[in-house]
Design a protein that fits this description.
The complex is a heterodimer of chains A (463) and B (239). With 463 residues, chain A is mainly alpha-helical. In chain A, 78% of the residues lie in helices and 0% in strands. Chain B has a two-stranded antiparallel ribbon with strand order 1-2. A two-stranded antiparallel sheet of chain B has the order 3-4. Chain B has helices spanning 3-35, 43-54, 77-81, 83-91, 93-96, 111-125, 138-152, 156-163, 183-189, 192-200, 202-205, 219-231; strands at 62-63, 66-67, 171-172, 175-176. Classes of the chains: A mainly alpha (463), B mainly alpha (239). At the A-B interface, helix 2, helix 3, helix 7, helix 8 and helix 9 of A face helix 1, helix 2, strand 1, strand 2 and helix 9 of B.
């Protein structure tokens, strides 16, 4: 950390982490409702719909706050200047968190726009837009004043403006259901396979440059190619959501062709990360940060690229659309691409914000957190996939009624919940670890026999 | 690769994809009117859509395959269940799903809301979306009918169904009424004994059911009807 105003990122990270913990706890309850029979009296006051709305909105909120915090950390260093209005950044956080809490409490009382992922009522939507405008103004003015443009800043700012613009398409009431879903995807798809990918590419490039010291010119050149491929496949690839909503036939061809290419930019990003990591001139330390960066590159490709590709062609999607196959892809892609991106960035930035030398920290508890949540999510996604294939076969191909086909899926939903327990444990450990990062043991200390025990004792003493 | 070329890839990729996307958006807007039967989209349907959103139905159900995956897809619910069964699920879910391992919340809908939702689902069921979802494909129902018709003339149960006028409310394949659920769907969910019990006294099995009882039929005749309905279980081959 070189600029004082980068500090405003930290409260964003803290809130994002707490919301992440809440999201996975709610996820456990969402999953459990597939396994057990919830009594009618409970369903009447706290239905599945409400818990699902909370699970997904918490996801969106914590990830956006993570991106915003990361932007506030990254922008001063890239533009070589202090942030324009650091106090405004804190006000914006309070505004957005207040809006988020109001929305979550509102859901409990049935205050909702009633459209999946966009449940936040229109009144609160205006507050979200206000928060987004403050954010863009703050970042925009900082970058404009500095006038040190590069592709990394361009990708980040472009992605953020793109993100804010698309949100507007989710706000009006549409009379026609098909039209409603057509524009719903302008928000959801063009976020996760457009705007968010731009932000991801910028954040990942920034981390790679800082962690490895690879040649900036090379990273920036590949960034252009990655972004070009992301947008080429991603924009028209929105068509893979338009197969079955009453849109014209041509979408089957366009959606199928463009989205079949969607894994390529992610593969390029994976290769880019691997090349930078191999070529760089310093040791891979701290190992945990590298573990996160590597897992992000791999699971982004597997979850978003491969799992997405698996059912993106219309011939397959006809049978898998709207089944647990979608759920499997959704969980692995969101975790692999965006949860791990945010967590990587937190592990990169928090030690620097805390002034730990060279960004090193004591990694031990964090490793458990990493493996528990990562293996948990991978196992969970595989269990969802089995349930989804069962559903596809029983309901879609054999034509069994919905609830009859759900019966044999229950076992696999139990497996999902068991992995969910692992995820919750992993996330709690990770959140606690990130919020209480401690300096690393010195090399001399850890080289001595018996040093760890003494270090722990010393750590306990200093508390 | 030079930086110039990298920049060219970026702009070419982005702008070409955007051009395709925007052109298709115009094309889609022009086609929606016919494909979604927008002429039938009246204020009642819109009111139904508002009720659908007000009660957050879409965070349990999918519709057009979008939403949550916790409850059945509603795209063709109207065609699959019939109007009365849809209404009953909206009015008294705690009765309809009393023996189900997954419940639907009692939302205390007003009679007007129920009618609006029925109108909404009726309109949605007519959207032309390349015959999705496969499990509710009319092709599949039609093939079931053909199979039944091939053997119906020999079946005493089919004659009984005809005599008791079941098809005034229920349907088989493409024919029959739309007040009650289609026979193929019932056949997939229920067993012979359950159907026989229901035919004798629907009220006793599901409180508030609108179906009349058929107590004048003998136990054997009722079981025969049950066997007939179960034998209709939707065609298992691909649509």
């Amino acid at each position: 950390m070189t600029f004082q105003t980068q500090r405003v990122a930290y409260p964003y990270f803290v809130v994002a982490l707490l919301l992440f913990a809440l999201q996975v706890v709610m996820g456990l309850w969402v999953g459990l409702q597939y396994v057990i029979t919830v009594p009618q009296a409970v369903v009447d006051v706290f239905p599945f719909a409400t818990s699902r709305a909370m699970h997904t909105n918490l996801l969106v909120l914590w990830m956006l706050l993570g991106f915003m915090g990361a932007t506030f950390y990254l922008v001063p260093e890239e533009a070589q200047t202090e942030l324009a209005w650091p106090r405004l950044a804190i006000f914006q956080l309070v505004l957005l968190v207040g809006t988020g809490v109001a929305a979550l409490v509102g859901f409990l009382f049935g205050w909702t726009q009633g459209r999946p992922l966009l449940e936040i009522p229109t009144t609160l939507d205006f507050l979200v837009v206000a928060g987004a405008l403050l954010f863009l103004a703050n970042v925009g003015v900082t970058l404009l004043r500095a006038r040190r443009w590069n592709v990394l800043q361009g990708a980040l700012l472009g992605g953020l403006v793109f993100l804010a613009l698309m949100y507007l398409f989710g706000m009006p009431f549409y009379r026609n259901l098909a039209m409603d879903w057509y524009y719903w995807w302008w928000v959801v798809h063009l976020w996760v396979e457009g705007a968010w990918e731009l932000i991801t590419a910028a954040m990942a490039a920034f981390m790679l440059i800082k962690l490895t010291g690879v040649d900036r010119k090379v990273v920036e050149k590949w960034l252009y190619v990655e972004l070009g491929l992301f947008l080429f496949t991603g924009i028209a690839g929105t068509g893979h959501h338009y197969y079955w909503l009453g849109a014209p036939n041509a979408w089957l061809w366009i959606g199928g062709a463009f989205s079949a290419l969607e894994p390529f930019p992610i593969l390029l990003m994976l290769w880019d990360t691997w090349r930078s990591a191999r070529e760089h001139d310093r040791p891979h330390a701290p190992r945990l940060t590298w573990l996160y960066v590597g897992a992000m590159a791999v699971l982004h490709f597997v979850g978003a690229g491969l799992f997405g590709f698996a059912h993106t062609l219309p011939q397959i999607n006809y049978y898998t659309h709207g089944s647990q196959v979608t759920v499997s892809h959704g969980h692995l892609a969101f975790f692999g691409a965006y949860a791990l991106l945010n967590l990587s960035f937190f592990y990169f930035a928090i030690p620097r914000l805390k002034g730990l030398p060279d960004g090193r920290y004591d990694e031990r508890a964090g490793r458990w957190g990493f493996w528990l949540q990562t293996l948990g999510i991978v196992g969970m996604s595989l269990a969802f996939a089995v349930a989804g294939v069962l559903q596809t076969y029983l309901e879609r191909i054999r034509g069994e009624p919905y609830m009859v086909a759900q019966q044999p899926m229950r076992f696999w939903m139990l497996i999902v919940v068991l992995h969910g327990l692992m995820v919750v444990a992993g996330v709690f450990l990770t959140v606690k670890h990130l919020l209480t990062l401690r300096p690393e043991l010195t090399a001399v200390e850890s080289a001595e026999p018996g040093a760890p025990a003494r270090a722990i004792a010393a750590g306990a003493g200093s508390r | 690769m030079s930086e110039r070329m990298a920049k060219a890839i970026f702009w070419l990729g982005t702008l070409s994809s955007l051009a395709v996307f925007l052109a298709m958006t115009v094309h889609t807007h022009r086609s929606f009117g016919a494909l979604t039967h927008a002429d039938a989209l009246d204020e009642k349907v819109v009111a139904g859509k508002r009720a659908f959103e007000r009660h957050n139905c879409n965070d349990c159900h999918t519709i057009l395959g979008f939403g949550a995956y916790y409850a059945p897809d509603l795209t063709r619910a109207y065609a699959r269940l019939g109007e009365d069964a849809v209404r009953r699920r909206l009015e008294a879910p705690e009765v309809v799903f009393a023996d189900s391992y997954r419940k639907m919340p009692q939302q205390h809908l007003s009679p007007a809301e129920v009618e609006d939702l029925v109108a909404f689902l009726r309109w949605v069921s007519g959207i032309e979306n390349h015959d999705w979802p496969p499990q509710d494909s009319p092709n599949r129902w039609r093939r079931s009918t053909e199979r039944v018709l091939a053997s119906a003339s020999l079946s005493p149960a089919a004659a009984l169904v005809q005599q008791e006028n079941c098809l005034a409310c229920h349907s088989i394949g493409g024919t029959g009424g739309t007040a009650g659920p289609r026979f193929e769907w019932i056949g997939g969910r229920r067993d012979v004994a359950w159907i026989a019990r229901y035919v004798a006294d629907p009220e006793a099995v599901s409180h508030g059911s609108r179906m009349p009882g058929f107590p004048h039929l003998s136990e054997g005749q009722r079981l025969m009807i049950g066997e007939f309905v179960v034998s209709l279980t939707a065609d298992r081959s691909t649509p």
